[in-house]
Design a protein that fits this description.
- The protein contains 8 helices and 9 strands.
- With about 280 residues, the protein is of the alpha/beta class.
- It has a 7-stranded mixed β-sheet.
- It is globular and about 60 Å long.
- The relative contact order is 0.15.
């Protein structure tokens, strides 16, 4: 979550529309806060998340706030496969860890040791009624992001922002890489917006003292943000413009693109929200 001087909701007399967030890959990690957490805490979003383990899904629902619901599906393109459960749960995947590549880096293969395997059937997002009308889609499923995109053609027509993990080298065998995910999202009407940091490791035997996770040169993965094509803002419904501006401002601090959305809003409503926005940004 970006640091912003004020929430966008302060610019409007009427409440902003509630966002619908779909989180594919919502395994809770201690010390980690979801990118949309502030919106959820402020009652400005509802979240549909996925946890395929039925028992864990039930527990998460019992512990969750009312505005967040977990569903027990493996999200993908509708095909069947094998789920590799790894020693570090956050690295479990429908793809086989690429042991030969992982061994070239410090502290990677240690986190991707397969401890069990199970056959699974994946579910397309387009088949899940609860996610209809999604505004903000987050994907983090260890190489399975492209399959999820392929299974969400209908859903993506309404989505405004996609936040997805991407890899630059195959940490898992035969996994799609950034270029393929990028092409798929562009083909669904999105433009690349930004990366949120980069992660990597040092090649062995090089190691940074006291930090085996440190990067020396090789970048391995990142989180990429895509937005509905900013050359076609005039095709968005009025409330979509406000929702897109809300996500861009409150979540990412992308004030320049949020301003474009608000200018389009003003042109349709004869209002001056974008002027007030610029004034507020100038004063901090």
């Amino acid at each position: 979550m970006a640091e912003v001087a004020f929430p966008l909701s302060e610019l409007f007399d009427a409440p902003l529309p509630r966002l619908k967030v779909v989180d594919v890959g919502a395994l809770p990690v201690e010390g980690h806060s979801e990118i949309y957490q502030d919106l959820l805490d402020r009652g400005m979003s509802e979240v549909i998340a996925f946890e395929p383990d039925p028992e864990l899904c039930d527990r998460l629902n019992s512990e969750s706030v009312a505005a967040r619901k977990f569903l027990p599906y493996f999200i993908g393109d509708g095909s069947s496969g094998e789920f590799r459960v790894c020693n570090a749960p956050m690295t479990s995947s429908l793809f086989e860890p690429n042991a030969a590549l992982l061994e070239k880096f410090q502290n990677l293969s240690e986190l991707l040791q397969v401890v069990s395997r199970e056959p699974v059937n994946t579910t397309r997002l387009d088949e899940v009624a609860d996610v209809a009308g999604t505004d903000f889609l987050k994907l983090d499923i260890q190489g399975g992001e492209l399959a999820a995109i392929h299974g969400a053609a209908e859903l993506l027509r309404d989505v405004l922002v996609v936040h997805t993990e991407v890899e630059f080298v195959p940490l898992y065998k035969d996994q799609p890489l950034f270029a393929e995910v990028d092409q798929a999202l562009r083909g669904n009407g999105f433009q690349f917006h930004k990366f949120l940091g980069f992660a990597g490791r040092a090649f062995k035997p090089t190691i940074v003292p006291d930090n085996p996770n440190a990067v020396v040169s090789q970048m391995l993965w990142s989180e990429a943000v895509y937005v509905r094509d900013f050359m076609m803002l005039d095709t968005l419904a009025p409330e979509q413009l406000r929702k897109m501006a809300l996500i861009l401002h409150d979540v990412y601090g992308s004030v320049d693109l949020a301003l474009l959305c608000l200018r389009e809003w003003d042109q349709r409503h004869g209002s001056k929200v974008s002027i007030e926005y610029q004034a507020r940004l100038a004063t901090g």
